[in-house]
């Protein structure tokens, strides 16, 4: 025991001696021009791994050796590095800007480039911007912030994906989604990426930027660069937020009295009802009792609840000069607005970079993501048409499966134990390893090998007391499995050389991509025990079925790019890529995609030196061709499908016939040619910076699934037919409105306008009315009669001429021929907006920060399910609408009529079309960052607390509904209130 005490005393003495050998150096780092403090400046003891960062006020504190000459290295992106001797206890460091905006490094295809040297249309977003809006999917956080990129949420369900298009829809049936590149490797599941792991995101939009990705980049490229390790003291970041979500406006259905009035009026029209004395003629005894006691239910209110979203993340970055490591872990959980709607996501990332020597570097980026998801079968469709007089629970509080003794099951049925389950477990493993060789100055060879492995298992069980099986006599169990193996091997060689005023950069790429997918399904009916769900499939007594599927495709590519600059102000980029796709037919598998771009840095010219208004001015022009092979594998081939066959009255055999889709041996590339002209500018010492782009994309040989006549024996075929065109303008402006030592206000304005149109279809000039495709219009439009109102009593004579009567829907006679027929239909509106934009404002006052972000989508139309929720017979519930009666000559909805079904009501579909334009406050955040002095005792580098309101207010002509959803009432969109914390130590 004495020995232990002695050792402890020695250790304490040694510690005291070690502490005595160091001293504390403090200081403040500011911008030499403006005097503003610079946060997050790296302060490192030169020649060691010891260092720190400045806080939000530019202050730092660092322990340095006592009695030695110590040099501190101050480095910050966009500023000239400074080395100073740590002679003073309190230091003042002024760092000179080094064209911090123009010299920012931007990630482009297979390389990096300074922003000043860009020739294509590229927009970059840093990682800090991506974290301002807490979201399931990182793309949701940049909605409205990227010029030319249209982003909408697909639904409000837990883990719902987002819809992303870059510069409009080029294809009619093929995919229009962009290509996602994560750390140089294609990765389709962008929702897997934790926003805290992202260093930057770049969007390549014009053909000159995307051409190096050939066919894969036809719809734009979104590049994600994740964080890497840094040398010096390890840095640990921990962040977390918890948010409560609620439905962002949900319109109500009719209550009991409103439904009762509708059904009475519907029967009054037919003469069956004249007063309440006739109620027994149209209501059963149960309903009469409910009416008498004013008992009714709102099923949507019973189904919709508050949701919960929470995220917990930890990341550590560190290493030496030769070994750098970044590791992170993230847990995300979202509970949706409906019971049984839940998502859990676990992800971990490990990035390692190892320098072997001056010529060899190796590394790997890896991520594993695991999902547990419970998906709810939409009950709101059932709830919104359910008669409100049917009470869901009995007097004892037990659920009544068939209220009112009706044939429709209770919309709450799926929430009962073992009634319904839809569970999916998905694991995705993403690994990208690289070898980088720099044998001599200016030359680099890099080989990337990427692997994405995906395994998913889905189980679905619907008991006979579920909504899906309420009309069946048994339960149904289903088990689906799928796997995917995506391999990518790319070899990239680059050489850069400067000769006098001439700079050259040459890039060559050879790549092989392989995509293999398979899936299987097992199904049965009549599970022995409901608790067995979708397990023990052998215990199902009937309906046993098994199916499987396999797909494989490959893409081989060769690419070359030349970048040339003369005196740094005349820039040229030439790219050519040859792609070979296994999806296309022999003789058409290969295609060559060229592009060219040029830029002129006008602000670098001698004649611009005397002026002070423009601090930066660059003109860009580009042209290029991109391809698309986004069709299912084997679309070139016809296939056989199994059918039952009988050759006499008693004997049967299995037979095969041609499948629904015919193969096409002439299938080739879909081609898009894009012209782009852009202007980048900075004015008033770059207090205002921005870019303006005009583009024109013309696509031909569309990969289009064409409907065939039944006489052909098949239904469809994929062909290269038709043309589309997208042209528009994009504007992005960044402003520094106020900047003082205590207060700073910056803004970002984004405006995008795109005109999308079909130029030609199958025979060049004829519209495809059946599919809703019209030459001169966008791909997705609403084509129908134009509702003018309701025929009034004073218009009875005119209505009779058209075959209608007062109380019927009145539509416009477009051709003026005195009859209403299909030729009177017109295009009422498009699902795509005429323009969209965002207005982002960041305020900082001392330690407080405030972000207000407004997003707008103007000119889009929706088909409102709620507006069309009207049953003139009164057999189902309806929205509480202003319908026509002789006493109420409304122009909104036709007269109720018990003898006329909803589908039989003339022009009933015209009721749903609405202008879906909206403006919303997308994000409102208030944060507080603690000072370094306040954190000293806690041994923390930084601490920020914040609260956020997400999707707080929506302004539109559509009442009580978020039109971003597109008109559907299922899985409504949400607003969320969040509290979070960010810690670094």
Describe this structure in words.
The chain has 985 residues and is mainly β. Among the domains are: 21-98, Carboxypeptidase-like, regulatory domain (Immunoglobulin-like, Sandwich), CATH 2.60.40; 101-230, TonB-dependent receptor, plug domain (Ferric Hydroxamate Uptake Protein, Chain A, domain 1). It contains ten helices and 49 strands. The strands form eleven sheets. It has a 22-stranded antiparallel barrel. Strands 10-15-16-13-14 form a five-stranded mixed β-sheet. A four-stranded antiparallel β-sheet has the order 3-2-5-6, with no helix packed on it. The longest helix is centred in the first third of the chain and has 19 residues, at 2-20.
- Count of extended strands: 49
Overall CATH class of the domain at 101-230: Mainly Beta
Structural class call reads mainly beta
Could you give the distance between the termini? 37 Å
Overall spatial form: globular
The CATH fourth-level homologous superfamily of the domain at 101-230 = TonB-dependent receptor, plug domain
- Contiguous helical run count: 10
| Uncertain parts | 1-20
The residue-averaged pLDDT reads: 88
CATH architectural type of the domain at 101-230: Beta Complex
Helix content: under 10%
Signal peptide: 1-20
Keywords: Cell outer membrane, Membrane, Signal, TonB box, Transmembrane, Transmembrane beta strand, Transport
Membrane topology: Multi-pass membrane protein
Protein name: TonB-linked outer membrane protein, SusC/RagA family
């Amino acid at each position: 025991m004495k020995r232990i005490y002695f050792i402890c005393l020695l250790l304490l003495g040694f510690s005291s001696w070690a502490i005595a050998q160091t001293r504390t150096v403090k200081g403040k780092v500011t911008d030499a021009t403006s005097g503003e403090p610079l946060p997050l400046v790296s302060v490192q003891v030169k020649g060691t791994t010891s260092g720190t960062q400045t806080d939000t006020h530019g202050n730092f504190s660092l322990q340095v050796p006592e009695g030695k000459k110590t040099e501190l290295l101050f480095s910050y992106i966009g500023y000239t590095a400074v080395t100073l001797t740590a002679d003073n206890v309190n230091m003042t460091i002024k760092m000179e800007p080094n064209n911090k905006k123009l010299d920012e490094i931007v990630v482009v295809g297979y390389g990096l480039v300074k922003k000043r040297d860009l020739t294509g249309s590229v927009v970059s977003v840093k990682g800090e911007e991506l974290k301002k809006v807490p979201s399931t999917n990182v793309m949701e956080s940049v909605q409205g912030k990227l010029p030319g990129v249209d982003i909408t949420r697909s639904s409000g369900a837990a883990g719902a994906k987002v819809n992303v298009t870059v510069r409009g829809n080029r294809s009619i049936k093929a995919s229009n989604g962009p290509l996602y590149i994560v750390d140089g490797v294609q990765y389709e599941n962008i929702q897997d990426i934790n926003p805290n792991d992202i260093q930057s995101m770049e969007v390549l939009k014009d053909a000159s930027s995307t051409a190096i990705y050939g066919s894969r980049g036809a719809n734009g490229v979104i590049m994600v660069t994740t964080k890497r390790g840094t040398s010096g003291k390890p840095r640990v970041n921990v962040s977390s937020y918890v948010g409560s979500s609620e439905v962002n406006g949900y319109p109500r259905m009719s209550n009991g009295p409103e439904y009762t009035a509708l059904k009475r009026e519907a029967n009054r029209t037919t003469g069956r009802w004249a007063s309440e004395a006739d109620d027994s003629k149209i209501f059963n005894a149960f309903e009469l009792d409910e009416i008498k006691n004013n008992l009714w239910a709102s099923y949507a209110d019973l189904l919709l609840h508050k949701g919960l979203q929470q995220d917990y993340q930890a990341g550590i970055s560190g290493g030496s000069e030769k070994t750098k490591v970044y590791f992170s872990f993230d847990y995300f959980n979202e509970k949706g607005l409906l019971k049984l709607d839940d998502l859990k996501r676990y992800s971990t990332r490990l990035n390692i970079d190892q320098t072997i020597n001056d010529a060899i570097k190796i590394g790997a980026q890896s991520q594993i993501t695991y999902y547990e998801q419970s998906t709810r079968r939409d009950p709101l469709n059932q709830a919104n048409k359910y008669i409100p007089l049917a009470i869901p629970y009995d007097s004892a509080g037990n659920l009544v499966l068939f209220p009112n003794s009706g044939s429709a099951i209770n919309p709450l049925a799926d929430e009962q134990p073992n009634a319904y389950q839809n569970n999916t477990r998905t694991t995705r493993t993403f690994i990208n390893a690289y070898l980088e060789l720099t044998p001599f100055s200016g030359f680099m060879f890099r080989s990337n090998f990427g692997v994405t492995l995906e395994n998913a298992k889905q189980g679905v069980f619907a008991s006979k007391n579920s909504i899906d099986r309420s009309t069946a006599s048994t339960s149904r169990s289903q088990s689906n499995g799928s796997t995917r193996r995506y391999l990518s091997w790319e070899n990239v060689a680059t050489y850069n050389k400067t000769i006098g005023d001439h700079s050259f950069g040459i890039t060559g790429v050879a790549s092989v991509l392989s995509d293999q997918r398979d899936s299987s399904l097992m199904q049965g009916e009549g599970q022995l025990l409901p608790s067995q769900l979708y397990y023990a499939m052998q215990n199902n007594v009937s309906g046993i079925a098994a199916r499987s599927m396999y797909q494989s495709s490959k893409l081989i590519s060769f690419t070359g790019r030349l970048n040339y600059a003369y005196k740094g102000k005349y820039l040229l980029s030439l790219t050519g890529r040859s792609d070979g796709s296994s999806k296309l037919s022999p003789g058409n598998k290969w295609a060559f995609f060229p592009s060219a771009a040029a830029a002129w840095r006008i602000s670098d010219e001698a004649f611009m030196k005397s002026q002070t208004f423009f601090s930066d001015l660059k003109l860009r022009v580009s042209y290029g061709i991109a391809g698309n092979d986004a069709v299912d594998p084997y679309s070139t081939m016809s296939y056989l499908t199994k059918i039952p066959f009988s050759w006499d009255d008693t004997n049967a055999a299995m037979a095969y016939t041609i499948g629904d889709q015919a193969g096409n041996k002439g299938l080739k590339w879909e081609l898009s040619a894009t012209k782009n002209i852009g202007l980048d500018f900075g004015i008033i010492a770059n207090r205002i910076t921005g870019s303006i782009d005009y583009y024109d994309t013309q696509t031909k040989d569309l990969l289009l699934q064409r409907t065939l006549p039944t006489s052909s024996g098949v239904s469809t075929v994929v062909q290269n037919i038709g043309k589309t065109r997208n042209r528009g303008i994009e504007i992005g402006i960044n402003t520094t409105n106020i900047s003082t030592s205590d207060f700073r206000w910056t803004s970002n304005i984004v405006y995008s306008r795109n005109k999308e149109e079909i130029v030609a279809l199958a025979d060049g000039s004829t519209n495809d009315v059946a599919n809703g495709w019209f030459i001169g219009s966008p791909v997705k439009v609403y084509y129908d009669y134009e509702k003018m109102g309701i025929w009034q009593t004073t218009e009875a004579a005119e209505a009779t001429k058209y075959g209608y009567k007062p109380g019927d829907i009145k539509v416009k006679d477009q051709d003026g021929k005195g009859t209403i027929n299909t030729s009177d239909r017109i295009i009422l509106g498009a699902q795509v907006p005429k323009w969209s934009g965002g207005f982002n404002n960041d305020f900082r006052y001392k330690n407080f920060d405030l972000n207000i972000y407004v997003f707008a989508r103007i000119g889009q139309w929706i088909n409102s399910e709620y507006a069309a929720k009207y049953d003139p017979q009164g057999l189902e519930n309806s929205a509480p609408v202003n319908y026509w009666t002789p006493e109420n000559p409304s122009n909104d909805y036709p007269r109720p009529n018990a003898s006329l079904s909803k589908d039989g009501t003339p022009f009933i579909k015209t009721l749903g079309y609405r202008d879906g334009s909206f403006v919303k406050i997308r994000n409102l955040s208030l944060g507080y960052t603690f000072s370094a002095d306040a954190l000293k005792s806690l041994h923390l580098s930084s601490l920020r607390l914040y609260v956020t309101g997400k999707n707080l207010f929506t302004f539109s002509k559509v009442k009580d509904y978020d039109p971003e959803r597109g008109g559907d009432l299922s899985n409504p969109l949400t607003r969320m209130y969040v509290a979070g914390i960010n810690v670094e130590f």
